[in-house]
Amino acid sequence: MMYKQLPPIVQDPIFKIADACQKDTREEKVNLAIGVYLDNDGKVPLPLSVQKAEAWLAEQHIPRAYIGMEGLPAFNQHVQKLYFGEQSPAYIDGRIATVQTLGGTGAISLGAGLLHKAFPEAQAWIGKPGWDNHFALFEAMGIKTHAYDYYSHEKGLLFDEMVSLFKTLNKGSIVLLQPCCHNPTGCDLNTDQWSIVLDIIKDRQLIPFLDIAYLGFGEGLTQDRQVVQQFLNANIPFLLASSFSKNVGLYAERIGALSVVCPQACEIDQVRSYLRVLVRSHYSTPPAHGAFIVNTIFSDTDLTTLWQNEVDQMRMRIQAMRTRTHEILKERVPNFNADLLITQKGMFSYLPLNSEQINVLREKYAIYMLENGRINVPGLNTHNVDYFANALAKVL
Ligand code: LMR
Q1: Given a cut of 90, is residue 11 above it in pLDDT?
Q2: Is residue 211 annotated as part of the catalytic site, yes or no?
Q3: Whose C-alpha lies nearest to ligand 1, atom 1?
Q4: What SS3 string covers the chain?
Q5: What's the pLDDT score for residue 49?
Q6: pLDDT tens-digit map of 299-323
Q7: To the nearest 10°, the Cα dihedral for 315, 319, 322, 326?
Q8: Which residue, judged by its Cα, is nearest atom 6 of ligand 1?
Q9: Using CA positions, which residue lies closest to atom 5 of ligand 1?
Q10: Cα–Cα distance, 105 to 144 (Å, whole number)
Q11: 210-220 as b/e, with b when 16 or more CB fall inside 10 Å?
């Protein structure tokens, strides 16, 4: 035996449940585990905008040369226009360095690597509950992580606790923030709360690292990037990890971006050269196909409009599932705060269930959700939503 000295390790909680669900052969099973958009037939859709882009690309017979360590330049431009806007001073002044990454996860990893190089002593604060992988990604890059309280089932958003902690952080501490569609709670800060956070960030000279994986699933493409605009308007440097996994349905293509908003345009080349070194030492150059697809969609006005409409439809379907679950719960369990279902935004709802209730849902009803009570709402559809809501009503 060669590797027996390796101690047992805890598996990723999200993929663990998703795998268990996949193995379940019960016909009635409901998969609410992993954060993936599913259509009304429970399938990951291939958006029409992607199909059209791929059909066009197939005719171009593009050779598969390396696209460079920073990825496809045209793709990176589109990312900047989408998230920051051509009118933003940071864009106009050329103060944003954007590189193509292996999904949003790759963007966080790369950003963490850059921060550790630039600020070896900096430590990162990450919201709890949150996406467990945030901790792993920062730690893997050598950054010590800590949790800040973000939300509890009893009190909801722990805004006061969060800002009190931020006020105590050392200059140069990294704070991981989710601008919209918070994973796992679906509970976002409002504009006033973001202003307060921004004041503290400025005052304490913290380094904000924004993770925006679900643009368009909260209130819409424009509304969901308002927080990014708030950060730009505050004129502070920050990092943004973005992903096209969800809103273009390109999960397996691993296509995302890291954008580093710098105080001065003259820092951009240095940042880019460090990012290139990190990319080179991890995977050399990113894959091209996802970038070609996104670039094709955003280079064509009709395809862009089609894609925007498709994002709107996905969001509205999620909303319809929230409304239906809310309706059933309100009627069947009047003392349960079913309003959570309709106030939480994005792909997830965070249900105040204990592990026994979650077990009963899984064992008796074949309903799979995360151990922390998170459900991936797009796993609901017109065929299973009543079954789910009634089962939930029973365990409640
Ligand atoms: C999730 O939270 O379920 C998604 O972001 C998928 C993942 O990689 O964990």
Answers
A1: no
A2: yes
A3: 35
A4: CCCCCCCCCCCCHHHHHHHHHHHCCCCCCEECCCCCCCCCCCCCCCCHHHHHHHHHHHHHCCCCCCCCCCCCHHHHHHHHHHHCCCCCHHHHCCCEEEEEECHHHHHHHHHHHHHHHHCCCCCEEEEECCCHHHHHHHHHCCCCEEEEECEECCCEECHHHHHHHHCCCCCCCEEEECCCCCCCCCCCCCHHHHHHHHHHHHHHCCEEEEEECCCCCCCCHHHHCHHHHHHHHCCCCEEEEEECCCCCCCHHHCCEEEEEECCCHHHHHHHHHHHHHHHHHHCCCCCCHHHHHHHHHHCCHHHHHHHHHHHHHHHHHHHHHHHHHHHHHHHHCCCCCCHHHHHCCCCEEECCCCHHHHHHHHHHHCEECCCCCEEEHHHCCCCCHHHHHHHHHHHC
A5: 98
A6: 999 999 999 999 999 999 999 999 9
A7: 170
A8: 35
A9: 35
A10: 18
A11: bbbbbbbbbee
CA atoms within 13 A on the CB side of 294: 33
- Which two structure tokens, joined as six digits, stand for 363? 């064992």
Nearest to 21 by CA among 363, 382, 380, 321: 363
- Tens of pLDDT, residue by residue over 109-121, are 999 999 999 999 9
Structure tokens at 353: 């269930």
CB atoms within 10 A of CB 308: 17
Does the beta carbon of 217 lie inside 6 Å of ligand 1? no
174 near 209, Cβ under 8 Å?
A: yes
Is this model's pTM higher than 0.85 or not? yes
* Average pLDDT value for residue range 116-145: 97
Matching residue, tokens 């690597």? 113
For residue 108, give every residue at least 6 positions away whose Cβ sits within 8 Å of its Cβ, in sequence order, or none. Answer: 134, 137, 138, 209, 211, 241, 258
Distance 324 CA to ligand 1 centre (A): 24
Are the C-beta atoms of 369 and 361 separated by less than 8 Å?
A: yes
Q: 131, 133, 137: which to mutate for ligand 1, most atoms within 8 A of CB?
A: 131
Token code pair at residue 174: 């990294």
User: Is 348's C-beta closer than 6 angstroms to any atom of ligand 1?
Assistant: no
